[in-house]
Amino acid sequence: MVDTKMTKSAGEHWVCSVLSRLNWGAALTRDGLERTDILAVRADDSRQMIEVQVKTATGATDKTSWPLGSKSQLASRTDREWFVLVALPADVKQAPRSFVVPRDVVAAAAWISHQDWLTSPDAEPGKRNAPVDRSRVLLPIWASYEDRWDLINQPTTDAPVLLPPRYRELALDSRVGLPVGHPWLKELPVW
Known about the structure:
Elements: H1 4-21, E1 24-28, E2 38-42, E3 49-58, E4 65-67, E5 81-88, E6 97-102, H2 103-118, E7 136-138, H3 165-172
Parallel strand pairs: 3-5
Antiparallel strand pairs: 1-2, 2-3, 4-7, 5-6
């Protein structure tokens, strides 16, 4: 059995190493900082700063998913909050896969995935009752964000939404929608 703290640590350190290679001074925060695992400052004259939440899962297949509970579904406070979802392959000789996603996109996708699963017309009545804090999102949903490290050079509000088109339809569907307080409730982006 894999120690979950070791998995978390492997993902965070790997993200720090990638950020460093991209000219970001990355530092792990102390445990207990609610929304940020890594603070990074651009090592050029801009001194741009980003906040990164890392979620790490073992496996790197289409069945790999990340738990994205209630805290992951909170709207961003700034336009510098990113998630990096790391998929650690079973073979340690293979490089991890990474998906670089704005926080508000993660919040929307986690809600949409869970509500679609929970309220699916195909579900047997009474069989699906897990609360939204048990949300999980499968790797294929993030496919267009894979290795999109270039996105962190801009505000999250300027980054394109790269979710599957079906997720936009689900966000507009009264059966699924978006979480309370999500910024897309004012105006849903086009993607």
